[in-house]
Amino acid sequence: MAQNILRFTPTPPLQACLAILVTACNLSKRTDTPPWVPIAHSSDLHVSLDTGRVGVDSVGMRVWLRFDYARPQRVSDSTRQFTRTEIEEYLDCRNERVRDIWLQLFDSAIRVGSVASDSSSWVPFRSHPASDMYFKLACDWLRQHRRVLDPSVPLALS
User: Fold this and answer.
1) Architecture of domain 36-144
2) pLDDT tens-place values along the chain, 158 residues long
3) Is 108 left (phi over 0), alpha (psi -120 to 50) or beta?
4) In angstroms, what CA-CA distances link 150 with 59, 60, 82, 153?
5) CB under 8 Å, gap of 24 or more: what pairs does 148-155 form?
6) What is the number of other CB atoms lying within 10 angstroms of the CB of residue 26?
7) What is the CB neighbour count within 10 angstroms for residue 85?
């Protein structure tokens, strides 16, 4: 007894339409995680730089740094615990100074606090509470990957 198997072979125009549809679907996918790259780590802390949100102008760079803690942290007894902070900073690598823009605190994937900076003052890297080491590492990584302070240098990842 022969089986009658239905076989479908798309025509070239249909194949082209299917290829366009698949490509469009893939392009419309959003990734929930920006392209974070690790710049420092220890058993207690992992620090990453968001290469997808770097902005360069004639003075410096706007960057996001993420600090993932091995153990929950607390700012004070009256605040909720957090395991991650993300800070947006304006870095002047050449003069080793920084301006705070935004701070977010997370417990797992849930934001438990945020603070917009009310200061427009520059602070030397060495005087900032986040530690000058992380700002210098971010500057070094960006410089090594051609994201120097020159705004004419493209920011696209190579």
Assistant:
1) Beta Barrel (2.40)
2) 555 444 445 555 544 444 444 444 443 333 444 589 999 999 999 999 998 889 988 888 999 999 999 999 988 888 889 999 999 999 999 999 999 999 999 997 788 888 888 778 999 999 998 888 999 999 999 988 865 444 455 444 33
3) left
4) 9, 8, 36, 6
5) 149/56, 149/59, 149/60, 149/61, 149/92, 149/93, 149/94, 150/56, 151/56, 151/57, 151/58, 153/56, 155/54, 155/55, 155/56
6) 8
7) 18
Q: What is the pTM of this model?
A: 0.69
Q: How many CA atoms lie within 13 A of 47 on its CB side?
A: 18
